[in-house]
Amino acid sequence: MKNTAVNLASGRAYLAIPGPSVIPDDVLRAMHQASPNIYEGALLALTESLIPDLRRIARTQHHVAIYIANGHGAWEAALANTLKPGDRVLVPANGRFAHGWAEMAQALGVEAQLLDFGTQDPYDLARISEVLAADKAHEIKAVLGAHVDTSTSLRNDFKALRGCLDSANHPALLMADCIASMGCDRFEMDDWGVDIAVTGCQKGLMVPAGLSFVFFNDKAAQQRRTKEYVSKYWDWESRSNPQAFYEYFGGTAPTHHLFGLRQSLDMIHAEGIENVWQRHGILARAIWAAVDAWGREGAMTMNVTNPALRSHAVTALTLPGASGTELRKWLEGNLGLTLGIGLGMAKPGSPEADGQFRLGHMGHVNGHMIMGLLGGIEAGLKALDIPHGEGALSAASAVIAGRAA
User: Fold this and answer.
1) What would the pLDDT profile of 68-81 be if each residue is shown by its tens digit?
2) Cβ partners under 8 Å of residue 403, min gap 6
3) Alpha helix (H) ranges present in 227-315?
4) What is the pTM of this model?
5) 186 φ, ψ (degrees, to nearest 5)
6) Contact at 8 Å (CB) between 180 and 314?
């Protein structure tokens, strides 16, 4: 008998969207304190301690600038410090966020050459190599793309992308959007030859939205020095090498975000970044196993068919008709479980858009949370009579137990 009288959403809500992610209680407690002195004392030492630990997350020995901004601010900072109107960039895209970065470049007067590979396929490295080899005059000043595109959940190979540049002996900067991936999927800035990486604090770094980071190497720093003008606020030189404390932030420090960030970095380093990546990988495979089981006798599908190309932080999914929206609304209203909307996979307002949704499994997530997420989804599928196969929770638990084939 269906339970239609009692709402089961009371209790702690679970935000399973691909950012902002679940905020650890320890981070919230660290932020819950009175405003500090921003001119001298403990806050200055705390901020200085963040820099080497941020570098450890990005796997770089180079520079980092902190911005009071979301990921779009980090996009703009990366562009503003290295490019000028009339410059040209190459943007391989397989999701909405690469398009967004290209649009921002165009708004700054930069010509963006888009190579659109759709929403389900990886970069065509041969095509990218062709374009770079044909650019004999080296008019392309940067190649920018998403390490993980949050809209499609595709993960792109930046080591291979660096190989395309090196094979063509091309001097363009390589820029990576790591907003969804950093702290979740393996990313090796220096070893992969990435010149600039950008991220935000609200996903794998487990802090409320409001900070973003631009990591850049000496090659990118030298490119900045060729520019006659950079907006005072976006200029990374003073932020990465401040002569006074306020220069870290272009003004007043984001005090409580810094408290939270210090705690989140402590948590990541206590676990170990390699272990963090492995945890995300196991939990992602548990989700995929469940979706495979649901899809055997239903129509739920993952956007990315090849597991090797899937992000460990976000999974984009499709159900027939309006079932994706119906499932999201039922779960939030009845269980207190919020799934992510589909983004960039169909025209907004179209019938197809209502079939799209996403699961965020990034940052402060563990085995029982993911099993709860999957159990909630299965309850929603049953409540809404959405056709689905059986055995999803068993398949997921086998992955978590280490018994999957």
Assistant:
1) 999 999 999 999 99
2) none
3) 236-240, 255-271, 273-296
4) 0.95
5) -55, 130
6) yes
